[in-house]
Hints:
The protein is mostly helical and 120 residues long. It is 45% helix and 5% strand. Strands 1-2 form a two-stranded parallel sheet.
Amino acid sequence: xxxxxxxQGLKIAIQQNIRRxxxxxxxxxxxxxxxxxxxxxxxxITDCRWMLTRAGEPQVTHIFREANGVADVMAKNGSNxxxxxxxxxxxxxxxxxxxxxxxxxxxxxxxRKVPICNNI
Length: 120
């Protein structure tokens, strides 16, 4: 699914003539498949690589969900909408994401819970 979303996003970026593109994803498996052997998803990853080339070869990096709250809120909103399969383009932050956008602009830190093992 993440590969299809990447392709769709790259198509939009190319159509809108967006340069100096930064691609960040919460899917470390996608980053690994793009940089290493892609196994069972050969065709999809080949398409992703081709679109990345057309988009000026931006680097694709993994980030934690907490590092981009805006994308997380927008993804959750999109999964609950009736627009699945029909991308929505926003040229300014939509109302449901403004508060998260403002926190992101301020550089507000979000804690990340990680399991700790004391059985050493």
